[in-house]
Amino acid sequence: MKHELTGEKIKKELYYVVREIGKEKIQKDITSCIQSSRQYIDLLMNKSIDRLVATDQDLDYDRVIGTLSEALLHFMLTISTLPSERKIRLSSELVIDVVIPNLRNLKINPSKSIIVQFIKEGPELEKVSKLQFIQPNRENIWVVTHKPLTVKEYKTYSIFPDSYSNIIVDIHNFLKQSGDKSLRVVYTK
Q1: Do residues 117 and 128 touch, judged by C-beta distance below 8 A?
Q2: What DSSP letter does each residue of the chain carry, written as one string?
């Protein structure tokens, strides 16, 4: 019978891998060359999955991979100093996973904001269309899933096969093109 690991256990494994590689090294590399985020996302994701599978063979992979990819995005946004807000509750059943650059900007100028939503189970996809009341630009709703979707309305990223490793570069480019003033990619030790 499949079961799921807690979000804390998944984050713990991710941060174990981060420490193993070196948080400062990752941050320095990414802030000096945002394209290196692709390799780090792949490396961190693969090593974390290997560790999680080694501890438990009977996992609910969609949920585990969804939770891991969300934790990894939070980490990558933080170390690359890209502006974001996370886990914004709009109603009892609708939570925005990530808003780039922030909710205030989304409300004032949705064309210069992105919503990133993680789909961990099939029914969650139905909730994505409800986000259009706050983000009317469908192309600015980005959906991350374990496996590819055939949804054409939104920009989609999948973990397998991988398109997810491009997400930090795409967020950086979006912010740069939208003229976001909070964009800052500076390494400080």
Answers
A1: yes
A2: --B---HHHHHHHHHHHHHHH-HHHHHHHHHH-TTHHHHHHHHHHHHHHHHHHHH-SSB-HHHHHHHHHHHHHHHHHHHTT---EEEEESSSS-EEEEEES-HHHHHH-GGG-EEEEEESSTTHHHHHGGGGGT---GGGEEEEESS-----SSEEEETTTT-GGGHHHHHHHHHHHHT-TT-------
**Domain locations in the chain as residue ranges:** 7-178
Give the model confidence (pLDDT) of 138-184 as tens digits.
Answer: 999 999 988 877 777 899 999 887 799 999 999 999 999 998 766 55
Token pair in block for residue 44: 């961190």
CATH code of domain 7-178: 3.40.91.80
- Taking the CB of residue 32, how many other CB atoms lie within 10 A of it? 11
The dihedral built from the CA positions of residue 18, 14, 165 and 85, taken in this order, carries a sign that is: negative
Over the stretch 52-68, which tens digit does the pLDDT of each residue have?
887 766 677 778 888 99
Cβ–Cβ under 8 Å, residues 121 and 127: no
Structure tokens at 8: 């804390």
